[in-house]
Amino acid sequence: GQQLNQSPQSMFIQEGEDVSMNCTSSSIFNTWLWYKQDPGEGPVLLIALYKAGELTSNGRLTAQFGITRKDSFLNISASIPSDVGIYFCAGPPLIQGAQKLVFGQGTRLTINP
Amino acid sequence: DAGVIQSPRHEVTEMGQEVTLRCKPISGHDYLFWYRQTMMRGLELLIYFNNNVPIDDSGMPEDRFSAKMPNASFSTLKIQPSEPRDSAVYFCASSSGQPLGNTIYFGEGSWLTVV
Predict the structure, then answer these.
(1) Which residue of A has its CA nearest to B92?
(2) B110: distance to nearest CA of chain A, Å?
(3) Residue ranges of chain B whose CB lies within 8 Å of a chain A CB
(4) How many CB atoms lie within 10 A of CB B3?
(5) Low-confidence stretches of chain B (pLDDT beneath 50)
(6) A33 CA to chain B: closest CA distance, Å?
(7) How many other β-carbons are positioned within 10 Å of the β-carbon of residue A15?
(8) In A, which residues are within 8 Å of B55 by CB distance?
(9) What pLDDT is recorded for position A76?
(10) Could you tell me which of B7, B41, B38 has the C-alpha nearest to residue B22?
(11) Using the beta-carbon criterion (under 8 Å), do A31 and B48 form an inter-chain contact?
């Protein structure tokens, strides 16, 4: 089945630094989603991308849908302590009628104050 | 509006016991999903329902797992008998369908430990 590969698996940064993570697939996705999971909580949607090449921002977060439709990246500018958590990319597989999401393995972000 | 509600939040049980996890989706949502999260395998879709009907259960690990959705406001995931390798966080999510990405909401999860 279609799988999403995220990198890096974990990041340790200083508060105030910018963060960049990406997600790749061997096959095409028509939608790319980025979620964040806080400790002890379920994933929450951050940004949704629906068109190849689309660049979308949500506050300090920026995400892009790759032109090839096989990748996406998420950037966080000027990180703050509440950015700590696990970031997942996700997308619906290209199966007719499928209404489900597959998730990447996640990027765990740790911030040193 | 209340979000997706799961119970129990935490459960510790002995190997061989039956475990039942419960989920109340967001009112009006037609889709309900059960995911399992582990360190090794990440977030895996177990099964999803549309209008209370199971659509895709290809992610259900084995016969020990079963899921039901008797009505639009309630679903259960049952493990019988439970094994230590079933220890994980089980998430329920619901969606109004279109576009899927913008409308799927997760519950806070049920943290299961099988000893």
Answers:
(1) A42
(2) 10
(3) 4, 31, 33, 42-43, 45, 48, 50, 55-56, 91, 93, 95, 97, 99-102, 104, 106-109
(4) 15
(5) none
(6) 7
(7) 12
(8) 99
(9) 97
(10) B7
(11) no
Residue A77 C-alpha, separation from nearest chain B C-alpha, in angstroms: 23
Note the pLDDT of residue B99: 62
Instruction: Tokens 């008797």: give the residue.
Output: B70
CB contact under 8 A, A99 and B97: yes
Tokens encoding A108: 């765990």
Phi, psi of B103, deg, nearest 5: -120, 5
Q: What is the DSSP string of A17-39?
A: --EEEEEEESS--S-EEEEEE-T
**pLDDT attached to residue B52:** 96
Say if the Cβ atoms of B43 and A44 lie within 8 Å. no
CA distance A32 to A8: 18
In this predicted model, what pLDDT tens digit does every residue of A51-104 receive, in sequence order? Answer: 999 999 999 999 999 999 999 999 999 999 999 999 999 988 776 556 788 899
For residue A96, what pLDDT is reported? Answer: 57
Q: Residue B103 gets which letter from DSSP?
A: H
**How confident is the model at residue B115, as a pLDDT?**
97
Q: What is the pLDDT of residue A94?
A: 75
**Identity of the amino acid at B106:** F
DSSP state of B4: -
- Contact between A44 and A36 (Cβ < 8 Å): yes
